[in-house]
């Protein structure tokens, strides 16, 4: 039978509320000796706290919420894993929910997490939310708990944010291709996403810096998913390019699938740099160069910022822009144009 606070109180000869105060480390007039006795009895009876009952006493649910756009994308599943680890280290539970990149789900999941009395929310907005930014911003302003935007952030909302410098990440990738002699460089962009737009800007900035005329026929649009990379690959096959900058790993998977079906090889036929650095261990025969967004650092920084808000140690909205890093491997060959 499940042990309750009343069982412990009876054995310790104190009231249930005294037991609850001691087990929740709340201030009380109970002697240290009696506190130790109560905790020992709880241990001997193998008592496990009923979190909901505990939250009624402490007004803390010790729970955070995380809304991610695509749980099947390794970048987001890895981010969720690291945020969950941070929560657990600090004695918190994390409720992870998936918006499937739908604006309506962002709104509904914010309400769902509030209904579960989470103490704070981590949000990576859905792609579609970028197009409904005003409505999402209004919703966020009404939140009754602290929240933080990660990875995909809006400049016109003053709130806690942590993201990577997307334009810089794209710029260093394309500059690397240019420094290796490539002049005809295609881009598989995802410009319907806020960070995808900045990555496209980084591509354009590098080409302009090397005085390469922009051929907009070499810019293809994807949606961060494998299928769009595959379709882009079918078009690139017919273009006169030697290198491709792909703005995320899932599309790179589709692109590689597409060109390998046509017996094209990397880097023999195309030099490739991707973004996220999440899939190279799973690729056979392709040492894929990629822009790394350190998910561990992103999650630790985001947790620290939100936790400070929860503890009311800091109520000033903090913006943290992290630097991505190019991980160069053998998917880029040097050519002499
Ligand atoms: O792969 C998904 C992409 O969208 C990542 O690059 C990440 O930045 C997310 O926003």
Automatic annotation (TrEMBL):
The keyword Transcription applies. The keyword Iron-sulfur does not apply. Coiled coil: none annotated. SUPFAM superfamilies: lambda repressor-like DNA-binding domains (SSF47413), Periplasmic binding protein-like I (SSF53822). GO terms for molecular function: DNA-binding transcription factor activity; transcription cis-regulatory region binding. InterPro entries: HTH_LacI (IPR000843), LacI/GalR-like_sensor (IPR046335), Lambda_DNA-bd_dom_sf (IPR010982), Peripla_BP_I (IPR028082). Keywords: DNA-binding, Repressor, Transcription, Transcription regulation. Residues 3-58 form the HTH lacI-type domain. It holds the Pfam family Peripla_BP_3. This is Catabolite control protein A. It comes from Virgibacillus dokdonensis.
């Amino acid at each position: 039978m499940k042990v309750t606070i009343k069982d412990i109180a009876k054995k310790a000869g104190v009231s249930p509320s005294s037991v609850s105060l001691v087990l929740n480390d709340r201030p009380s007039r109970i002697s240290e000796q009696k506190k130790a006795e109560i905790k020992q009895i709880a241990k001997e009876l193998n008592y496990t706290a009923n979190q909901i009952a505990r939250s009624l006493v402490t007004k803390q649910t010790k729970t955070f919420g995380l809304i991610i756009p695509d749980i099947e994308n390794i970048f987001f599943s890895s981010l969720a894993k690291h945020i969950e680890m941070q929560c657990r280290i600090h004695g918190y539970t994390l409720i992870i929910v998936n918006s499937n990149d739908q604006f309506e789900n962002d709104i509904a999941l914010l309400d769902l997490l509030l209904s579960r009395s989470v103490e704070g929310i981590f949000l990576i907005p859905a792609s579609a939310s970028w197009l409904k930014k005003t409505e999402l911003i209004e919703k966020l302003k009404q939140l009754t708990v602290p929240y933080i935007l990660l990875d995909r952030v809006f400049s016109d909302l003053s709130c806690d944010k942590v993201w990577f410098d997307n334009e810089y990440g794209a710029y260093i990738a394309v500059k690397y291709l240019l420094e290796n002699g490539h002049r005809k460089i295609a881009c598989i962009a995802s410009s319907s996403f806020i960070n995808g737009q900045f990555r496209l800007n980084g591509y354009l900035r590098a080409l302009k810096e090397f005085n390469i005329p922009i051929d907009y026929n070499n810019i293809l649009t994807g949606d961060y998913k494998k299928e769009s990379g595959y379709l882009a690959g079918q078009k690139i096959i017919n273009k006169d390019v030697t290198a491709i900058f792909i703005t995320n790993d899932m599309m790179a998977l589709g692109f590689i699938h597409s060109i390998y079906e046509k017996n094209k090889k990397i880097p023999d036929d195309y030099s490739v740099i991707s973004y996220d650095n999440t899939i190279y261990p799973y690729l056979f025969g392709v040492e894929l160069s990629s822009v790394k967004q350190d998910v561990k650092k992103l999650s630790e920084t985001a947790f620290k910022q939100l936790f400070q808000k929860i503890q009311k140690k800091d109520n000033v909205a903090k913006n943290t822009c992290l630097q991505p890093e190019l991980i160069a491997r053998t998917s880029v060959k040097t050519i002499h144009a």
